[in-house]
Amino acid sequence: FKTMIKKKFSIETDEEVDESFSITFNIDHGDVEIIHEREVVEDGNVEDPVKQIALSDALKIDDDIEVGEEIPETVDFSEFGRRHIIAAKQNLIQKIRQVEKDIIFEAYQNRIGDIVTGQIHQITQREVKIHFEGEELTLPKSECVFNERYRRGELIKIVISDVIRKNHDVKIMVSRSHVSFIKRLFETEVPEISDGIINIVKIARVPGIRTKIVIESIDSRVDPVGACVGQRGSRISAIVSELNKEKIDIVQNIQDSRMLVTRLLGIKTEYQLDLDYENMIAEVVVQDSMVKDVKGIKDSNIKLVEELSGFKVNVHSASEFEEDNELKLIDVDEFDQNLINILAENGLKTAMDVFDVGQKDLSEMEGLDEDKVKFILDTLNGYYAE
Where are the beta strands (DSSP E) in the chain? Predict the structure, then answer.
């Protein structure tokens, strides 16, 4: 509008426009009004027609006006010409839309991390479009959970993950796979978390398969795990239901690395754990039947333990570990090649093979006398004694 005024009245700067003109928007009625204010001067004394008006002309507008007073006059838009009016209208619409987009951007920037419930209205190969409070939210396929099925018209909970400005437009991004979705669900279901009594230390997730959440209580009287589970599992079951039965492991935080790794692994049977603190490697030995459970679907359990503990986790079955750590006869420095060959010809390749045969059967083998048998057994026993 200032541009139109400058062209119409041959004004060079916005400051000059502001001195003599005011532009009023009536939002309720959708009207725009331009008021031109000028000082009333005696006829023949008009030096600047933008800022001054002759008394005779002013009296046609207001018959009570006097010299020296300011007189407002509504500018007729038809004076600007049709082309300028259309351009101004388009520009105004564009500016209003931009202001609306700015308001939306600011509003949703402040809601990043919030969980909302919207209605699915479009599903494509790349994304799911969701309606929420008159706005369109975008759920990219990368932020979906692989084993969830979405249907047009159904309600869906999502977390607002980002707000993006693109080509003068605003795109509101949401997610169901982000860890912030888990965090907000726990804050909603567990009052002790939203009240700050229980802190969420870390969350790791393989969406659709398993989540591990490490928590701690600032109040020694509050059991953090019990509070998250709820009476008869009421709180955790609500979260699991929203996540379509995704497994959730709640672990109480502890500074001792060995205890933390143990809790994160969640092994209920006998196991062996060795931590290499220098290289941050955890070697875990479990019963053969437990290897699959400890690793989890697609090694999900191990991936989560590694992410939360910082240790690289190697899982071994008991039989594999025993085999890998069994003393081989070729590694016994005291045995010459001839002795190794004699034992190998009798099917003996490891120390356990020798112990299984026993002293009596060894003495009956060709090439082995009593002294050699004693030497073999004493040497191998010495290795295990070490």
Answer: 21-26, 31-41, 52-54, 70-74, 115-123, 127-132, 135-140, 155-166, 169-175, 198-206, 210-217, 247-252, 271-276, 281-286, 312-317
